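Inputs:
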Amino acid sequence: MKRRELLAGLGASAAVLAACGQEQPAAGTASSASPGETFNWKMVTTWPPNFPGTGTSATLLAETITRASGGRIRVQVYAAGELVPPFEVFNAVSAGAAEIGHGVSYYWKAQVEAAQFFGAIPFGMTPPESSAWLHFGGGLELWRELYEPFGVMVFTGGNTGTQMGGWFNREINSPEDLKGLKMRIPGLGGEVLQRAGGTPVMLPGGEIYTAMQTGSVDATEWVGPYNDVGFGLHEVAQYYYYPGWHEPGAILEVSINQEAWDALPEDLQDVVRSACGYVESRMGPEYSARNAQFLQQLRDEGKIEIRRFPDSVIDELRARSREVIDELVARDEKAARIYASYAAFQQQVNEWLDIGERAVVAARG
Ligand code: CA
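Outputs:
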């Protein structure tokens, strides 16, 4: 992207954010760094290098911060495994080994179990709904409070769009077929599968294709047609199931080491804040456009079968999801507060959706 377009886009996005009252700068939190001081930031990510949508968003964020700051913050991107393993991103940012991270919060559920609510919740909110909760329903404040003890500041990084149920080399005709199913599926969705009798496996994106090809897993979820075709998953599976019950949308997170954040002068904090907003605003439209395009490609090629999970399977997974969430909330006070906020917002927005978006989609046929 040319510098002029980039800055025009950034300016427009910052103006929109300001007009919406979203992510307004907080007064008086920045350091009194000397003018002309430069900052060299390492960005660690959970993605393969420049992986379409997620990895490219991380790169765009790094470039935007570097250019819009006039080079006063120079951000160097490291793909998964280049500096730290993918699931170590949060720890690296918390410890200050990297100043900034780009990933999804459920990858660090071992460190912060309640963080999963900021990644994806089975049968939870769609990308626009969760974005509404984060920016206008108190979600982002709860997220920052959760990460504060770890010395991590967080921004929203976008969303991968509504996901697919995944790729299977077995037919799923009834809840019985979930029993013994070995599937790559992270986060709360994995716990739900386990409760339904399956064996969830947590693998970073870069290892999924080989796991499917060698049969070390029977099934995998990843994202949606855009990213899944990017990995070639259609070459190693027969059935592509929907809906993405486990991950109605994955919220991406931008984590920043608190000391690195506090060291920035106020104008550079504004640059980072606006850059996050700019990148986030592009991601939803990108996924909507590309998922539609790659779904069409899969249909045209006709080599795989696209199927809906039977109602009996969805009912089973919904019931098991309820149990998993209830138990998490019962054992973790922070999780309870976050989920109370999330669930109340979901119910309210759902009522609007009924007579808003869903009604329009139904009406247009
Ligand atoms: Ca996924």
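Remarks. Residues 1-22 have pLDDT under 50 and may be disordered. The longest helix spans residues 266-301.
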